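User: Working on a comparison across species. This one is Peptidase M50B-like protein from Halosaccharopolyspora lacisalsi. Can you predict its structure so I can line it up against the others?
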Amino acid sequence: MNRLAWQVSLPLLGSVSVLALAVAAAALVLVSSGRSWRLLRTVVTIAHEGGHAVVALLSGRKLNGIRLHSDTSGLTVSTGRASGPGMVFTLFAGYPAVSLLGLAGAWLVTTDRVRLMLWIAVGLLVLMLLALRNVYGIVSVIVTGGLVFAISWFATPAVQALSCGLMSWFLLFGGIRPITELSSKRRRGRAQDSDADQLARLARVPAPLWLLLWLAIGLGCLLFGGHWLLVRP
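Assistant: Here's the predicted structure for Peptidase M50B-like protein from Halosaccharopolyspora lacisalsi:
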């Protein structure tokens, strides 16, 4: 039934449907528009900081807490060795996490597992709630998780499929915009403590190369995830 939600429109460009293109276009507008981006960017920050937190734990570091701020920035604090692979991977993980979550979401949508995707999202948000250390962060995650839960519990299968498709596209596009924003800030000298700059000091690899690597990962996820969502809806 979820598959039917994607194929109720006339075919366009072979197996690509008008509805699938419309969902992709809607997500692109949400990411491109300044007003909607300011409102929804916190969702990207949640994924970004969650990436830092998960890799910190996997690398053996102790997670002390996560903070989300009203300017859509975030901070994940962990303790362990101040250098070494664990710290490098922890710093590196934030930006790719957004795109990789979008790619995973695209795969779940196209394999007809939208309900599973929604419940995984709720579970991850609940776990993140336990690590949050400020009121704004707690409220942001509760609101986001409440919306996802409402879709999983009350929405029809068709609406669930469309919502998950939109969320996947939003993360795929939303994983790229912060990288371009960081590049612009660095050119103006406004991001000297960014993840890229910390990695440059820690790993002796120039910050622009980290940005290029993140961008390559983001574009790769967009290419594969977009193909799945458009050609295999």
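For your comparison, note: DSSP finds eleven helices and four strands in the chain.

User: Helpful, thanks.
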